[in-house]
Design a protein that fits this description.
about 120 residues, seven-stranded mixed sheet, single chain, globular, about 35% strand, 2 helices, alpha+beta, signal, OB fold (Dihydrolipoamide Acetyltransferase, E2P)
Length: about 120
């Protein structure tokens, strides 16, 4: 019985239990939020950083936030819009990926069909 309780507590307290699909909310002007692992991160010469979720957002989820996007598996940060934030975002996401830690990102705009990320938190 003790082993069963221990196994269940490990399962419930696992950080994977807190990962999931991005969700959107209509409060505070409308935003979407993702908590999970950095599946992939990509940067191109067009000054876009693409941050890939480990699980795709449900189709139309962004409607709850009053946003109109069409990319469900990734969100973006524009380097030219705020270079300092973009550099800090990229280094934080790379750190999370390298250390297999979760992040939370918040998105409150759209660019080229991708939700735009405007903040990031690194889990412990």
């Amino acid at each position: 019985m003790k082993r069963l309780i221990f196994a269940l507590s490990v399962l419930l307290l696992s950080t994977d239990a807190f990962a999931g699909k991005p969700t959107c909310h209509g409060s505070s002007g409308g935003y979407c939020r993702y908590t999970g692992y950095v599946e992939r991160i990509y940067i191109n010469s067009g000054n876009l950083i693409l941050f890939y979720f480990d699980e795709a957002m449900d189709d139309g989820e962004w409607d709850k936030a009053g946003l109109s996007a069409n990319q469900r598996s990734a969100a973006t940060v524009l380097l030219n819009e705020n270079p300092d934030f973009a550099k800090l975002f990229y280094s934080t996401a790379l750190s999370a990926q390298a250390s297999n830690r979760q992040v939370t990102v918040q998105m409150s705009g759209v660019h080229a069909g991708y939700l735009k990320i405007d903040r990031i938190w690194l889990a412990r």
